[in-house]
Design goal:
Layout lengths: L1 H4 L3 H13 L6 H39 L13 E7 L6 E7 L9 E4 L3 E7 L5 H10 L4 H11 L13 E7 L4 E5 L8 E5 L2 E5 L6 H12 L4 H14 L9 E7 L11 E7 L5 H15 L5
Antiparallel strand pairs: 1-2, 1-8, 2-9, 3-4, 4-5, 5-6, 7-8, 9-10
Helix pairs in contact: 2-3, 4-5, 6-7, 7-8
């Protein structure tokens, strides 16, 4: 410690000189003690300066951990149950979905008035949605759309995001439906079809979920929004997503069927983060019903 401080001779001399003024000339042992005291007094400052010098390196190390160049880990599957349906009375077509993920409406449902609706979920490839709409627009039937889109999938991440885990459903503007559930979609996964509807889901309590959804859609009267909503409620009552609830969405289209001029969107509602998303979605659907006016 004394060797480390010998570079500061002026401070030591100043200390000895001060003691001489008082008339108390000190010897070698006292001088060494004084040097040690001065070193100890300056130690906190040295530690602070060392910390400031190391701070940029530590920050860079932390940044490296936060922004890794390693490939991203597999995303969680879009564990979901959804319903696509058509109302031959109004010509409206739409879909509804619920899941234990944040903002499930962001990417699952795709629709175009006069064309149809698609739902893409499970080990999801979001591009299936716009691809399906484009093929329906070209006149392809739903079953052929399913086959074409799936077979065209290059399966870019077979090790952790395989195309065999995709789940995909399509309904056209006349109510014709088709669906695909891959063999590697997370259990329980499956789909079932009814009159003008198809229900599908993965990581569900069991097949009763989609069966109950189809029955509720077929048995519920009224506007398409209430029929789609009833299907979600029935699916949840049958066990729903095994992990719970978080978000829900509904999308309905018809040519010029929305409010204002040239609006094909009859309804687009999302509940992105809620412990009871289906209940909140019902509140929104019922509010929308009070504002709906008969078209002249």
């Amino acid at each position: 410690m004394l060797r480390e401080c010998r570079g500061d001779e002026n401070a030591t001399r100043e200390g000895v000189h001060t003691l001489r003024i008082t008339g108390k000339l000190i010897g070698k042992a006292a001088t060494d003690a004084l040097r040690l005291q001065i070193c100890l007094m300056r130690l906190p400052l040295l530690v602070l300066l060392a910390g400031l010098a190391l701070a940029p390196a530590l920050s860079a190390q932390t940044a490296d951990k936060n922004f890794s160049t390693m490939p991203p880990a597999p995303w969680p599957p879009v564990a979901t149950f959804s319903i696509l349906g058509y109302d031959p009375t109004t010509g409206e077509v739409g879909g509804a979905v619920q899941s234990r993920v944040f903002s499930v409406g962001n990417g699952v449902l795709w629709a175009e008035a006069g064309v149809g609706v698609a739902a893409t979920q499970a080990i999801v490839d979001v591009s299936y949605g716009p691809q399906a709409i484009a093929l329906l627009r070209g006149g392809m039937k739903p079953a052929d759309v399913i086959k074409k889109v799936w077979e065209s999938d290059p399966d870019p991440r077979p090790q952790d995001w395989t195309k065999y885990g995709r789940q995909f459903a399509v309904i056209d503007a006349q109510g014709n439906v088709a669906a695909y559930t891959g063999p590697k979609a997370s259990d329980w996964a499956g789909d079932t079809q009814g009159e003008f509807c198809t229900a599908q889901g993965n990581i569900l309590a069991g097949p009763d979920v989609v069966t109950a959804m189809v029955k509720a859609f077929e048995d519920t009267p009224g506007h398409l929004s209430f029929r789609l909503l009833a299907a979600l409620e029935a699916g949840q009552a049958a066990g729903g997503d095994k992990r719970g609830m978080q978000s829900a969405a509904i999308l309905i289209v018809k040519k010029d069927g929305g409010v204002w001029l040239h609006n094909d969107v009859v309804m687009r509602l999302q509940v992105d983060d809620n412990p009871e998303p289906i209940k909140e979605l019902r509140r929104l659907v019922e509010k929308a019903a009070t504002q709906r006016r008969p078209r002249r």
